[in-house]
Amino acid sequence: METERLLTGLFDLQRFERDPALQKILDEVEAQYFSKELSDDTMHVFSAAGDPFLQPPDPKNRGGPL
Q1: Is the pTM of this model over 0.90?
Q2: Domain ranges of the chain
Q3: How many CB atoms are located within 10 Å of the residue 26 CB?
Q4: Distance between CA atoms of 19 and 23, rounded to whole angstroms?
Q5: Are 14 and 24 in contact (CB under 8 A)?
Q6: pLDDT tens per residue across span 15-46
Q7: Interior CA angle at 37 toward 33 and 41, to 5°?
Q8: How is residue 6 annotated by DSSP?
Q9: CA torsion angle for 16, 22, 24, 27 (degrees, to 10)?
């Protein structure tokens, strides 16, 4: 959590100071950790979790009759 506080403080400081060296560091952090909002078309590609409304199969009904 200490790192988060430090970064938050640096972002706040940069709003007033406009230090080019600090801005370079902040740009690198933003590029690495912050992302932009994805469009609906892009989100459609990332459905790896499956259908959220699909019920999982009942484990009792596995394999059918013995």
Answers
A1: no
A2: 1-35
A3: 16
A4: 6
A5: no
A6: 788 888 888 887 887 887 776 777 777 777 66
A7: 130
A8: H
A9: -60
